[in-house]
Amino acid sequence: MCTTLHSRRASAQLHRSQWWLVKRLSAASSLMVLAVLPSGAEGLSSIELPHDPSHAERPVEWCAYHIARKELIAALSDCNYAVAQNPKSAAALSNRGSVWLIAGESKRSIRDFDAALKITPADASLHYNRGIALSNLGLSHEAIADFGEAIRLRPNFAIAHHNRGYEYERLLRRDEALADYKRALQLDASLKPPADAIRRMEKLSQ
Predict the structure, then answer these.
(1) For 72-108, what is each residue's pLDDT tens digit?
(2) Beta bridge partners of 19
(3) Are 125 and 14 in contact (CB under 8 A)?
């Protein structure tokens, strides 16, 4: 799984008291993608206002709302507005990074995640999301470092274990990959990708 937004039901996580996670699987690989939106974003579904930055009193939440609806242009506009209002808002930077990540602009997403991590370096979801972006660029060693930091900060982060295992497997470090896949499944038995990976690797070893 990967991570991807900063708002609350779409893909990353910032202030733990304010955010929640939504998970989806990447169709392109067995990497797991995660994205995050801010708390209360679900309540925006009842707001029937057109997208308009001049009306965005809560641009971070609006960004998350649009991300959840896959309205990336509107989401980017709101995130840009939020960052302009407060360049040191880790939530705004994280959500904009998630927009770029979803849009396939990994280098741009990394710039925003880097900036957000300077503000909140102990945010496991930010490390996780940056790890996904680094993986997309083929930077497995750097991705492993970020997934590892996400796990250090949140030991029960099952999808981070899976994604680190995926990167180990890409580097042909099969023992480490298998250990991470098994740990991910121990932490969350409902995850299909690590279960599939374990079966595949065990079949190859026979």
Answers:
(1) 888 888 888 888 888 999 988 999 999 999 888 999 9
(2) 38
(3) yes
Cβ atoms of residues 175 and 148 within 8 Å: no
Q: What is the mean pLDDT of residues 194-199?
A: 92
CA distance 134 to 106: 7
Poorest-pLDDT segment among 28-42, 101-115, 178-192: 28-42
Q: What is the pLDDT of residue 56?
A: 57
**CA–CA distance, 16 with 5 (Å, rounded to integer):** 14
In the structure, what pLDDT confidence band is assigned to residue 168 with cuts at 50, 70 and 90?
very high
Q: Name the DSSP letter for residue 135.
A: H
- What type of residue is 186? Q
Retrieve residue 43's tokens: 């309540």
Three-class DSSP category at 5 = coil
Structure tokens at 143: 């991705």
Count the helices and strands in the chain (H runs, E runs).
9, 2
Q: Which residue has the tokens 């042909």?
A: 172
What distances in angstroms separate CA 162 from CA 17, 111, 134, 174, 175, one per listed residue? 25, 24, 15, 13, 13
Q: How many CB atoms lie within 10 A of CB 85?
A: 13
In angstroms, rounded to a whole number, what is the distance separating the alpha carbons of residues 79 and 67?
A: 10
Of the given ranges (14-18, 86-90, 201-205), which has the lowest mean pLDDT?
A: 14-18
Q: Which helix (H) or strand (E) holds 190?
A: none
Distance CA 132, CA 124 (A): 13
